Amino acid sequence: MNSVQYFLELTHIPRPSGKEDKVADWLVKTISKIGYKVYKDSYNNVVAFVDNGKSKTVILEAHTDMVCEVKNNTKFDFDLEPIHTYIQGDFITAQDTTLGADDGFGVALILNILEHNLKKYPNIIAVFTTQEETSMDGAKNLDFSTLNADYMIGLDGTESNNIIVSCASGLFLKFEKKLEYEMLDCDTYTLSIKDCLSGHSGEEIHKNRANAIKEIFNIIKDEDIRIINVFGGTRDNVIPANCTIKLATNKPIENIVEKYKSNFINRYSEEKLANISLINNGRQKVKVINNSNDIVKYINDFDNGVLVFDKNTQLPLTSINLANIKIINDTLCINAMFRSNLKDNIEYYKALYIDKAKQYNIECVRHGYAPLYTSINNAELTKICMDTYQSLFESSPIISNMHAGLEGGVFADNIPDIQCVTLGADLYDIHTINERLKISSLTKLEKWLDAILTKISKNN
């Protein structure tokens, strides 16, 4: 089999974050059949060892979980159903769901290397991690005492001409506010924003894509409204595409919403499929949230998007994604994800956002952290990747710093002096229902990785 065939087979195996047991069992069975020592740990991480009798060892790493998004009004059970894929020209995509190319292509590529292992390669440790899309708990709980290696090549990038030499840290923030209610006799409405472009909250955060939560609260920011219910967004690492708020007010808001629609189109020229709708539910006696205006003010006061740009490249260095909002058991729950390629920014912004929430009697109840890694100690491995790319494709690759979390940060934190880079295939609209994988880029990466492994072995 080749990488494309492995990828298509992988799409038939359910693998939401935190539920990777099926794919872990499939990997153990597949790798055992190929003939290598392999084990699965309690986090469903899978690790395989290839001893080629060489002095150098390379970790090849990919994560098995995927972001599970589905088109509005489409019924699909990611726990049970296979992804429905189809090939259109040079692309593999999915029908009304995310594809799982992030990071299914990396899993497939490593399996291809294991199946076609050549003795010219260095020793290989294949590591398949779990829960990367939510917490990186799989990587954080690996038994690193068994992972003695000189180099790590992560296969979780999104462009086939990129060598990623550093990644951003990730800070997961969860806020809560206990709600109190009162009964009011008011006009009631359902206000929704649906089908915004969305996207990866690191890689697309600077591309002027609408955050549905921010937009819907912006519509009502100057109005005297009471919130009945609100729900929007899905995962921390996805720019929210949808948000709905049920509200009560004694002030007509139809004209306000219509005016906002025109303004929205002018600000977001690419959001051609986004839909803003208002349904008048009539006058009702309803339970509304006390001090609703404080919640509206807080969301509008929440600085969202890119906070710090690189002055030279105009790419993001620090950002935050207001990811989801909902009410559970009379508690307002808000999740956000902070990213930074600047080590010193973490604690500053963490304190800033926690303090801002306190001003509105909102408490930060959880914060998780994923480490960054830098290019400081990557010179030798980066040069090998550059030289082999230039030799194969007669052009120069791009050296980049990724504004997203990568598991290389966890490996660099736990394996002394290891050199880490991340490579990728060409992926488009990841974490959305339009996610696509370019087939030719995967075969290109097969050739490049073969050349890299061969050169590492020859150099030592």
Tell me the number of strands. Answer: 21
Proportion of residues in helical segments: 25-40%
Radius of gyration: 24 Å
Q: Which residue ranges are poorly predicted, with pLDDT under 50 across at least 5 consecutive positions?
A: none
Mean pLDDT: 94
Q: Distance between the terminal alpha carbons, to the nearest Å? A: 30 Å
Number of helices: 11
Gross morphology is elongated
Strand order of the largest sheet: 1-2-6-3-7-19
Beta strand %: 25-35%
- Structural class call reads alpha+beta
Largest sheet: 6 strands, mixed
Question: What does the model show?
Answer:
There is one protein chain. This protein has 460 residues and is α+β, with helices and mostly antiparallel strands. It is 28% helix and 32% strand. It is built from eleven helices and 21 strands. It has helices at residues 3-10, 21-34, 101-115, 137-140, 212-219, 254-267, 292-301, 345-358, 379-393, 408-414, 439-458, and strands at residues 37-40, 46-50, 57-63, 85-88, 91-94, 123-129, 151-157, 162-167, 169-178, 181-194, 226-232, 243-249, 275-289, 305-309, 316-328, 331-340, 363-370, 398-402, 419-424, 427-428, 436-438. The strands form five sheets. A six-stranded mixed sheet has the order 1-2-6-3-7-19, sandwiched between helices. It has a five-stranded antiparallel sheet with strand order 14-15-16-9-17, covered by helices on one side. Helix 1 crosses helix 3 and helix 5 packs across helix 7 (292-301). It is elongated, with a radius of gyration of 24 Å. The protein starts with a helix and ends with a helix.
